[in-house]
Amino acid sequence: MAELLKGAPVAEAINERSAELLNRLKARGITPTLAMLRVGEREDDIAYENGAAKRCEKVGVQVRRVTLPENVSQNELEEEIRRLNEETDVHGVLMFMPLPKQLDSAAARRILSPAKDVDGITDGSLAGVFTGSGEGFAPCTAQACIEILDHYGIDCKGKRAVVIGRSLVVGKPVSMLLLAKNATVTLCHTRTVDLPHEAQNAEILIAAAGKAGTVRAEHLRDGQIVIDVGINFIDGKMCGDVDFAAAEQLSLSLTPVPGGVGTVTTSVLVSHVVEAARRQNA
């Protein structure tokens, strides 16, 4: 039977580290503050906003919610981003993506300061991930995968890691983070030839294709570490990219969905806000 790599203890450990740094900042009169910039009323954005706000409040990070109407103009959005960049008492900005179709998302991302980009969506933040410079912040979900591996004592050095998915949110950045930990990384996607062979060859398998059932029994084998990043809904029930019923029959380690990577992601976000406050007041 599979061993479950649950996210809750990982999130709690991150929260404890964040609380220690936050207390030191508050002793200096600094309260780490996150501005959550949302355009429109998408239900998934609101759900994540509420969850992130709750996690922030648990640790002691202050939250400022900024909501713009669905029909906001590009100029109005860019003015709001610039205002948040300039506010010294705002240390991190979470801008919900995707933006409504009439808006230029790339232009909006370019304006956001990488120093405040706590979810790693700007070109500057991603450049820091790809160059290993340590500047900016990695995308929270990609960082959450690494936090889980670290928490459970999984040494990536020399291991064969296969990432399924090539997005800038997870696939590409998590590949770079694994390389930084000296894993040997193969980046795959849904059009990879003989994906089951590539996946079975992995010692660490990151499933981030964004499609339920991408990873099935023929992709898996005993002894693997499987990190399931997917969030999908079938008949109203949340599931990952991995066929959980097939995976749990094997002797491998697996993050559950729900209760895995997603649980850790918001704690990573909070830790980024606290670290951003430290850097901006160094």
Give a description of the structure.
The chain is α/β, with parallel strands linked by helices. It folds into 2 domains: 28-114, Rossmann fold, CATH 3.40.50; 140-262, Rossmann fold, CATH 3.40.50. The chain is built from 10 helices and 11 strands. The protein has helices at 8-27, 43-59, 74-86, 105-111, 123-131, 140-151, 171-180, 195-200, 244-247, 261-280, and strands spanning 3-4, 33-39, 62-68, 92-95, 160-164, 184-188, 204-207, 225-228, 232-234, 237-239, 253-254. A 6-stranded parallel β-sheet has the order 1-11-8-7-5-6. The mean pLDDT is 95.
Lay out the secondary structure:
Layout: E1 3-4, H1 8-27, E2 33-39, H2 43-59, E3 62-68, H3 74-86, E4 92-95, H4 105-111, H5 123-131, H6 140-151, E5 160-164, H7 171-180, E6 184-188, H8 195-200, E7 204-207, E8 225-228, E9 232-234, E10 237-239, H9 244-247, E11 253-254, H10 261-280
Parallel strand pairs: 1-11, 2-3, 2-4, 5-6, 5-7, 7-8, 8-11
Antiparallel strand pairs: 9-10
Strand percentage lies at: 15-25%
* Count of individual domains: 2
Q: With helices defined by DSSP (H or I, 4 residues minimum), what is the helix count?
A: 10
Helix share, percent:
40-55%
**Biggest β-sheet description:** 6 strands, parallel
CATH superfamily of the largest domain: NAD(P)-binding Rossmann-like Domain
Strand line-up in the sheet with most strands: 1-11-8-7-5-6
Task: Give the number of DSSP strands.
Answer: 11
Structural class: alpha/beta
Cα(first) to Cα(last) distance is 48 Å
Give the CATH class of the largest domain.
Answer: Alpha Beta
The CATH architecture category of the largest domain equals 3-Layer(aba) Sandwich
Q: Which residue ranges are poorly predicted, with pLDDT under 50 across at least 5 consecutive positions? A: none
Dominant shape: globular
**CATH topology title of the largest domain:** Rossmann fold
Radius of gyration from the CA trace?
19 Å
Secondary-structure element string: EHEHEHEHHHEHEHEEEEHEH
Q: What does the average pLDDT come to?
A: 95
Oligomer: single chain
